[in-house]
Design brief:
Layout lengths: L9 H11 L3 E2 L1 E6 L5 E6 L2 E6 L2 E5 L12 H9 L1 E6 L5 H6 L10 H5 L3 E2 L8 E2 L4 E13 L6 E13 L4 E2 L2 E2 L1 H4 L3 E2 L5 E2 L16
Antiparallel strand pairs: 1-13, 2-3, 2-6, 4-5, 5-10, 6-9, 7-8, 9-10, 11-12, 13-14
Family: Belongs to the flavoredoxin family.
Keywords: Flavoprotein, FMN
Protein name: Flavin reductase like domain-containing protein
Length: about 210
């Protein structure tokens, strides 16, 4: 099967991406607008960039209806701050409630029954139910189009990290205790810790 992305509708290209790049970690992002209204939304185009400086990134796509910016992106451009709340199994369903397209100004955390907790270095709150929080200032944002299917790359500098005490062992986070979830294609999620194996990384050529 040979496919040329230039000949595909954006939603068909999207299906190829999410069906190929998986499992994907979920950035559950909390932001505030200039008036103090809180927004929360999950994004599965999310990864780390580097440790020094400590940078992460996620990609909010434009709305599929009219190509407008999502509230998360608009808030970050306005206030230059956000929090990445790592998603664990025990609040995945409540996180999913926040994925709906609520009117601007709606507090999705209230709608989902999740708890706000004051951040240490930024104004947007963190989600108490999350066991790891990355408080970020905006380092850079790049835009790639303004139509449905287009998106942006938001790069954040991690200013402060919260880790639940029971997870932190000898300078590392216990994946088994974190119990993360990942996003697959369609409506499918995965529990990556249910079936794992060890493979020691090779440091010398054969």
């Amino acid at each position: 099967m040979e496919l040329n992305p230039a000949s595909l509708e954006w939603n068909d290209a999207y299906k190829l991406l999410v069906g190929s790049i998986l499992p994907r970690p979920i950035a559950f992002v909390t932001t505030m607008d200039a008036d103090g209204n809180v927004n929360a939304a999950p994004f599965s185009f999310f990864t780390a960039i580097c440790a020094d400086p400590m940078l992460i990134c996620f990609s909010p796509m434009r709305k599929g209806t009219d190509g407008s910016k999502k509230d998360t992106l608009a808030n970050i451009e306005e206030t230059k701050e956000f929090v990445i709340n790592i998603v664990s199994q025990d609040f995945t369903e409540k996180m999913n409630i926040c994925a709906a397209d609520y009117p601007a100004g709606t507090d999705e955390l209230v709608a989902a029954g999740l708890t706000k907790e004051k951040s240490a270095a930024v104004n947007p709150p963190r989600v108490k139910e999350s066991k790891v929080h990355l408080e970020c200032s905006l380092h850079q944002v790049l835009h790639f189009g303004e139509r449905p299917g287009s998106g942006s790359l938001v790069i954040g500098k991690v200013e402060h990290v919260h880790v639940a005490e029971e997870l932190y062992e000898n300078g590392r986070i216990s994946s088994e205790k974190l119990k993360p979830v990942g996003r697959m294609a369609g409506h499918i999620y995965t529990r990556p810790m249910t079936d794992v194996f060890e493979l020691i990384r090779k440091t010398e050529p054969r």
